[in-house]
Structure formats: structure tokens, C-alpha cells
Amino acid sequence: MLLDRKSLWPQLRRWEKQAADRHGPFRLRFGTLFVADADAARDILVDSAGNYLSQSGFLRLGPESLPRKVRSEASRELLRVLSRHDLTSSFDLASALGEVSDGRGRLRHQRWGVELVRRYFAPVIAHPRHTEINALVDAYVTSSVVADDIVGHVLRRSHRTVPALRAGLAEQLGRLPAPESDAQDLVDLVLGLPGELSPVDRAQLLQRLVLSTVGFTGVTLEWVVMLGIRHGYDAPAVCQEQVHRLVKEALRLYPTAWRLIRVAAADHDIADSRVREGEHVLIGTHAIHRSATVWDRPLDFRPSRWQQPTDDQRRSYLPFGKGEGMCPANGFAAKALEHLSHLILHDYRGHVRLRTRRPHVRTLLAPPTGWTRLTPAPPSDR
């Protein structure tokens, strides 16, 4: 087995510096056009001129997005599924923290947040009666979301693990009928999608929805808790509004989705740069969020900046994208992050130990290696 854990963080910092020194888009060494201007990025993502292929980060099969009409209905159904579950009152945080900590009571970075959020969204992903599906989802989170999307690519005889898990999910989904009523979980959602979709197709869509629901949210939770502890937010006086600003600032400084990619559908210009049909355009969310022309002291962690953000700052804040490719459940993700972060910071006192100082960047922008230890606050402090 060959394990490639090399972080892309040095490249991101180099692109940020290049963006600061230039006016408008520029080409990276491998030829892709890099966009770090918020207005240009929003024009690309909204795409009112039809210059880009219709795209979805998760409602797609391989590189091909599902038809727009199917995606729109699936997004609406996803929101309905999320709204049917009262996660804030049913989640047992203390039990979940015990399950995701190691044998020494530590929460390992680049892992614990994803495993905790997997438990948080368990009723949304699959009903407990789907025993086999839940076991396969757990294996997918460990072997793909953590090992591949967060840590790095695991080269193990041509990536046999994820296809095997997809085959297992396809087998289980193939045994289930399409739901006769409204979807209650993501399993119902993918089974109810219209069109000539095979069980393997539906399994792939379920995996992508799990990555969306668990991967991005879990990594951000790690950032919020780690930064909250290091800046003194783990206190009984911490309030919801403070946590709201804490989450926004964490997503600004360390956007989990650090880049958005679009494919040109026709020749066109972005500022003074010519884009050819079929060319990829990379929107550097991390660079936009760290632009000194928009953000005062952009590399500083300052949640207070969200008390009175400027119009330019609101327009430059793109952690969930924009347009039809925007994460449809971004509101629920933000609420989940705020709820879990407030529970942890209010009820626990934390200690963070880092092995490195740099973030770890692969598909997702994750915290540095290390761990966080949480100790329950005395009852008198809660």
C-alpha cells in the first residue's frame, strides 16, 4: 500500500499571493484559469449568460450532472427530509463524543468531526431498520471520506474499497422498492429519483450525498471547535450569537470547499482572459476569503468582523458556492454547526494539541494533525 498524505496547503498559499499581486484571473502552471475576484466568481457561478456547463457537486454520476429538473426536485426533497427530523432535541452529544474519541479520551483531528456528524445526521441518512446500509455508510465514511477526501489518496490495488462499498449499497438498494410516500431519509430520496437509474447509479448518488452531509460539515465542526477553544470561547457565558459569528469566521478563513470548478460550455472572456469551450475554470474560495482589498487583516481570526460586515464582504463570502450549483442544504448545515458547536463550547472545556501548524488540504481543507481533549464543565458552570 502507498499512502500519499501530502498537503496542498503550500500551493493554496502561493495562489493567494499570486492573486494579491495581480488584477484579474491568471493561469496556473498546469494551464487552468484561476479566479480570485468575488464579482467574477459570482458571475461564473450564477452564469446568467450560459457560458458554463450545468453542474452539481453531488447530484451527478461521475462528471455528468443529473438533468436540471431532477436536481431541482431532489434539492427540494432533501430540504423536506432535513426538516422532518428534530435533530437538535434528539442528539445525545455526550454519548457520541465518547464513541468518537480514542482510547485516551482524545478527539483526533481530520476524523472526529466527520464521525460525530455522521451520528448527528444518522436519522436523515438512513432509518435504523436499514442495518446493512448503515454499516456500509459507516465503512464509506471511514475508508473514503476520512482516508481519501480528508487525509489523502490511498492507493490500494486501484481503489477497490469504494467500488466494493458502492456495489454493496447497490445490492441493498436494489432490494428496496421506491417509496410510496414522501421521503423520510436519503435512502428514500435516491430510491425515488426519476429516470433510468440503475441501483449502482443510486448507490453513487447516496455516497455523494453522504459526503455532502457528513464530510464538509464534519471538517468545519473540527475547525470551529478548535478555533473556539484556542480563542477562549469554551466558556459557560458563550452565547448563540457568538457561536454564529465563530462559525462564519471559521468558514471564511478556512473554507472547507476551498475551490469550485466549472467547465466552459462556449468560448468567452473573463476580464481580459480568454476561456475556450471545454476548459476548466478554478474559483479559489480560499483566496477570495483572504483578499486584503475586502477583509481588514484578512489572515487574522476575528469573529467580531461579522457584527457589521460590509456589502463587499457579504458578496465575497462564498463558503457554499452560489447559483444553481450552490449547496442546497447550506442553511441546515450552518444550523447544525452552530448547534453542535454551542453545545460543545458551552458544556465542555477544551485543550488542543497540534503536531503541525499548517492546515491539511486535499479534497477538503482540514485542520492540522493533532487532537482536542474535552472535559465536561462542572454543573455549576452550565
Quick description:
It is built from 15 helices and 15 strands. It is of the alpha+beta class and 382 residues long.
For the record, give the distance between the C-alpha atoms at the N and C termini, rounded to a whole number. Answer: 48 Å
Q: How many β-strands, per DSSP?
A: 15
Q: Please report the number of helical segments.
A: 15
What are the secondary-structure elements, in order, as H or E?
Answer: EHEEHEEHHHEHHHEHHHHEEEEHHHEEEE
Largest sheet: 4 strands, mixed
Mean pLDDT across all amino acids = 93
Shape descriptor reads globular
Radius of gyration: 21 Å
Strand order of the largest sheet: 2-3-11-8
Task: Provide tags for this entry.
382 residues; alpha+beta; four-stranded mixed sheet; three-stranded antiparallel sheet; 15 helices; 47% helix
Tell me what you see in this structure.
The protein has 382 residues and is of the alpha+beta class. The chain is built from 15 helices and 15 strands. It has a four-stranded mixed sheet with strand order 2-3-11-8, sandwiched between helices. A three-stranded antiparallel sheet has the order 6-15-12. A hairpin with a 3-residue loop joins strand 13 (360-361) and strand 14 (365-366). The longest helix is centred in the middle third of the chain and has 32 residues, at 199-230. It is globular and about 60 Å long. The relative contact order is 0.18.
